[in-house]
User: Fold this.
Amino acid sequence: MKTILRDLRDFLVSLQLTVALLVFGMLLVFAATLDQTNLGIWGIQQKWFHTFIVWQDVRGVNLPIFPGGYFIGGLLLINLLAAHIERFKFTWRKAGIFLTHVGLILLLIGELLSGLWQEDFHLRLNEGETRNYAEAFRDNELVVTDVTDEKFDDVVAIPEILLARHTPVQHPRLPFRVVAKAHYPNSILQMRKPDGTPTLATTGLGREVVAVPQPITYKTDEANMPSAYVELIAPDASPGIFLVSTGLVAPQRFDYGGRTWKIGLRAKRIYKPYSLTLVKFSHDRYAGTEIPKNFSSRIKLTTPDGRDDREVLVYMNNPLRYAGLTFYQSGFANNDRTTILQVVRNPSWLLPYVACALMTVGLCAQFFIHLVAFVQKRRAKLSAPAVA
Amino acid sequence: MKKSFFPALATLVALVAVAVTIRAPRNTSDYDVVGFTKLPTLVNGRLKPLDTVARTTLLITQGRQRVTTPDGKSLTPGEWLLDVLYRPKVADTYQTFEIVHPDVLALFNLATTDGAGGKRFSANQLAGRLNELERQSKLADGTEAPIRTPFQRGVVQLRDSVILYQRLQNSLNDTTSPDFLDRLARFEKALPTGLAATAPRGGANPHGSDDAKLLLEMSSVFSSLDSFAYLRTIPSDKPDDPTGWKTAGGAWSASLGNGRIAPAALTYAEIGRGWQLHNPEAFNKAVRTFRQSLDTAMPDVMRKCDVEARFNSSQPFYTSATLYVVAFLIAVVSWLRWPNELGKTAFAFVVIAFALSTIGIGARMWLEARPPVTNLYSSALFVGWGAVALCLVLEFFFRNAIGSVAAGLVGFATLLIAHHLSLGGDTMEMMRAVLDSNFWLATHVVTVTIGYSATFLAGFLAIIYVMRGVFTRSLDAATADALTRMVYGIVCFATLFSFVGTVLGGIWADQSWGRFWGWDPKENGALIIVIWNAVILHCRWGGMVKQRGLMALAIFGNTVTAWSWFGVNMLGVGLHSYGFMDSAMWWLIAFVASQVAIIALAGLPMEMWRSFRAKA
Assistant:
């Protein structure tokens, strides 16, 4: 037993393991980069990096083909920590190497945390429009709203994942159960033919429009349009089966139990305690060309308590950082009258800075220690024959 | 021992040769073509001399700057440009369109024997089948650029060349009317009366209605010229505002509105008449007067145009590539004979070539007001420059000609790559919005590029080790040891710079996109280089590799660097897609194959290495 533990320890602290992990890491990054032509930048992160094992569909069979980013990164972290605990003795000559490795540990942790915590949203604003929420890129939610009271909306949001799993949802605020009869991650909407294409929907727009499933797209310039047939089941007269889709712009209204409701599928929203108004979007081009010189959005930022009421300019290489979120210029639409801002929340954003500062200082120190030693040795060697 | 004068003499010869190339260009005829080519124009958002337009257009359409007329006369790019602008019928006979794909030739019913050098054809030779070219390239447009067949690529490229040429021809002249410049003169006279006639309550002048008719005719010609012209030659009223520069058509159109003709538009017509009517005096006078007015109106622009034209004609990178080859050969010979004299000479040649490259890069930086690396072309220049700088340091310390050989090799190779990248057009492009940040270009891009230089250099030094060891007996223990220390030191340097550069890139990404790392292809490429350098160092420290293993790993670093430099651009995805390229794929594959072959050589058993066998 003891020998096994000792072997394990020797394995975990070995430099061979470090080299092997680095090579594996390199292959992982290389393969993931190639795979971007198929899956796009978001798809490869899920498939190759934010996972312990990379699965690949080989002729219909899902096979593990490679250790994933968490596996390699995690083992590298263990290897680093173990090696330092086991055999590293601090000397000034090795101070640079020590700093570099501490930085690397922080960097690996930082990447893990941002993989876990980082969230991306986007915010579309037309000129003059004000919004106090941003929308997620890929996460959607089924929203059932009680709009009986004109002054007050009672919103229940159900994540799309529950629809995908067909999990029945019974929410205390809803007098009915919500069950997905069908869910398509990507679809197109078509008008139902008069002869009656079969549809699951029994009420609402779904009687005129049908959702046709489509393969999921990973292209950066295309978005998936999920749809679902959702049944609302009540003990007495059930409201029926609705077609919901992010392609249907307005939610559908219906009455049930003496109250008025709205149902719809929309991008997941993140509400903020402040609102943004697009004052002006500018798209500068170089004279006589279509080459973009700059994109900028002049935005008015207001908080309800009146503490902030000012204009900010978001442009290329100059994002707005406010209350834990970063807003940066990501696109435009609608003949330059709509701006698209990307909104990122990453609580661990400072960690890479610290890590990289440590590593840079460490590498520079080590390099100069070596260089000075080399030059001194060389000088000693050159002067030696002269003495002799 | 007698002191040899050979190194000093050879250096002097090289310096004289360099001095000859950087002389100011001189006119080859009575026309002040040089003065003309220094005139500024706005193209692709940048103010540049017409000389640059002439040269880059020729590089795009035929891959070289020299033009030979059908009767065997050789033209400067400036003379060619004047013919294109003002004598379109003559220019149409010059064979300046390169076509290599046999199927594209077949589209035009042409054979290689019809072309100059078997591959260059004239606009006249293409004229009959342009509709078919248009149809074929429309078909090819439907395919995404990375997956086009060579035929489709050839068709699209030729179509783009032809359009560029036609737009250039219609910049100052209407190719459909041979007497356009005479009509402009008539227009100039008719303008006041014609405008009066079209004004309300006009018509008192008996000639008024004829003049108004001419104005109307010309108005439609002008607006089509305005929309088709390639050059914006008519200066802005405010010299520092490039958006005000107009096409000649635009300037003539504007005169219909306010009755005033822009002086520059008149001047270009005069220059054209001088060129068309073979009247050098009139031509030179128009150029001279125009130049004087520009000198007072926009001295800064004119200074830049002068420097750029001089830079173009002296071609410092071409001269320096030649010097690198010579230095390489001399240094290799120095390992076999006269190590002292030849070693010194090679070193001097490398220094001269390096100085010339430095001046060239410096001139580009001053012209663009940018840090050295702004696009793929300038990264090739800078990778070479950085590697040669490191070689000079190595040679200074070791004095065994290895630094000179590596400098010659890397210097020439990178300049050759740069030459091929320059065939895409003007290499001083305007920076796309996200890249428009001198601070990050100066820090992140420069550091990463130095990291590339160093990784390549380590690889090339390792190649020298393998080649000398396997094929010659010159790799003695001292040399082998020196090479090992060089490679190790350069790998350390490469690790430092590629790491710091990658980190700076992450910080830039965080500043502009709100995330430090996004697994974008270019980021991944840089990361792979860092990891590989770390692998080399850890293998060395752990005693997993000795000399030969270190060399093999360093050579593999070449393929890793080549991949992240060019390979990721070929994927055509990602945020950094500033340097997309499609045709270089095969070159990359060939390069990787060659490196793998050399690694295999390094893996040969010791007794097959000539150097080590000799010892045994």
Remarks:
- Residues 431-615 of chain B form one domain.
- Chain B is about 70% helix and 5% strand.
